[in-house]
Design a protein that fits this description.
Keywords: DNA replication. This is Sister chromatid cohesion protein DCC1. One of its GO terms (cellular component) is chromatin. The chain is of the alpha+beta class and 438 residues long. The protein has three domains: 162 residues, no CATH class; 139 residues, no CATH class; 60 residues, Arc Repressor Mutant, subunit A, CATH 1.10.10. The protein contains 14 helices and 18 strands. A hairpin with a 4-residue loop joins β6 and β7. α8 packs across α9. 16% of the residues are buried.
């Protein structure tokens, strides 16, 4: 099933169907006359077909008769039937949307429109499904004239494909491909040497061929990743590059000699020029500076002018991620003091900013501690993720676990359904507590 799209066009003989003569098989019927020849042709012969119907005691009406025959190109394997919604059918018929199957040889197939991705599964049916070149239903047949119409049957199927919309966009595979040629924090002249050690760089169209997402979904995913267009290729900024660029950005916001760079107003060209002055030996693309501002600032357009101000939550999360990755665990009070020193003046950390990024535990000996746990690094599968979370902590409050399911469960209702289905739940002090998998 997973490779059905790549099956070669098979001949009729390969399907076990070996056509005989181009004529229809002969049928032996009792003869009403004394002719020696009592076998006669049915294909395209209205008189003989009428005699057959009379023999079967079917009503002889003055109407159109349709005769179904095998097409010369009849095949079982060259066709797949697919059930689609009326909306998709309308888009296909009108040509308003393009649909394409995406994936590599070992992938399960998905069907993508410009905006949506559908999982493709095969279903069985007890009915026999025929594909015909044409067929008149009762309201379409000619009732005032008796005639014989031959209909060619192209295939017969007892399975069909069903579609289900992909609700969650998974990015692990996209990240894996982009990691192959990360853009490093490197000096001028090092780039060609670095690229010789990498396996593959991708353009957007090349990614679209191997990532099982619609065009809009892929563009949206790339916008939420530290990805830039460099020399025609999409390059993922390395963790070191992002960390160093963030450090420079924060230092410039606290620099009184940089009036165009502050938490209230960030000028992108000024930031780029300042970075080039400070890091003369480093390759810092303008697109990377734009990404830094776009992902850490709020944008406001006034009188046609784009203005940026620091997004406190985004900046705190990036700096906290950088700090938490440097150690296994921090005491929460110590971590908060360090963050106060590292953040620019006027930016204050709030614990709620760290949801889905850090895990806060409370121990008798050490009190409250904090450690790095990024929802983006967790397994994509629901069961695998829950298993990992319960190895990190035996008991979870539902409110504590919810941020670590936010990417695979878009609503609180979906979270509650998953946890109720897969986890053992107890009510302790009037609060739901998860005790492990069922």
């Amino acid at each position: 099933m997973d490779k059905f799209l790549l099956q070669p066009v098979s001949s009729s003989k390969a399907n076990g169907y070996v056509p005989q003569d181009k004529t229809f098989p002969k049928c032996e019927l009792p003869s009403d006359n004394n002719e020696d020849e009592n076998s006669f042709e049915l294909l395209g012969n209205l008189m003989n077909v009428t005699k057959l119907l009379e023999l079967a005691k079917l009503p002889n009406t003055n109407t159109e008769i349709q005769q179904i025959v095998l097409s010369p190109n009849f095949s079982f394997d060259d066709y797949r039937l697919m059930e689609v919604s009326p909306a998709i059918a309308n888009e296909i018929e009108s040509g308003s949307a393009k649909f394409v199957f995406r994936g590599e040889l070992d992938d399960y197939p998905v069907l993508c429109s410009n905006k949506t991705t559908y999982l493709v599964r095969e279903a069985d049916t007890s009915n026999t499904l025929m594909v015909l070149s044409d067929l008149h239903f009762s309201k379409d047949v000619k009732r005032d004239e008796k005639c014989l119409k031959t209909i060619k049957m192209e295939t017969v199927q007892m399975k069909y494909l069903v579609l289900s919309e992909l609700k969650t966009v998974y990015l692990n595979r996209l990240k894996e491909l982009l990691h192959e040629a990360e853009f490093q924090w490197m000096k001028v002249g090092e780039e060609p040497e670095v690229l010789t050690e990498r396996r593959k760089m991708y353009t957007f169209d090349e990614l679209l061929n191997v990532i099982q997402l619609s065009e809009n979904e892929l563009r949206n995913a790339l916008e939420h990743l530290p990805v830039i267009n460099y020399n025609g290729f999409l390059r993922l900024l390395s963790i070191e590059f992002c960390d160093r660029l963030l450090m420079e950005f924060i230092e410039l916001m606290d620099d009184d000699n940089e009036p165009d760079i502050s938490i209230h107003s960030v000028n992108v060209p000024s930031l780029y020029n300042s970075l080039k002055r400070r890091e003369t030996e480093r390759i810092i693309p303008y697109d990377a500076v734009e990404w830094m501002v776009r992902s850490h600032c709020n944008e406001e357009v006034k009188d046609g002018v784009h203005r940026f101000s620091v997004n406190e939550r985004a900046l705190c999360r990036s700096k906290a991620s950088q700090l938490l990755r440097a150690a296994v665990r921090f005491e929460l009070s110590e971590f908060e003091k360090l963050m106060e020193q590292l953040l620019p003046e006027g930016v204050q950390l709030k614990i709620e900013y760290l949801e889905g990024l850090a895990l806060i535990d409370e121990e008798l000996e050490r009190g409250k501690t904090i450690r790095y746990l990024n929802v983006e690094d967790l397994p994509e599968g629901e069961i695998e993720r829950l298993e990992l979370l319960f190895t990190l902590r035996e008991r979870w409050k539902v409110t504590e676990m919810r941020p670590f399911l936010s990417d695979i469960c878009k609503t609180d209702r979906e979270v509650n359904t998953l946890l109720t289905t897969q986890c053992r739940v107890a009510v302790i002090n009037e609060e739901r507590v998860l005790l492990g998998l069922k």
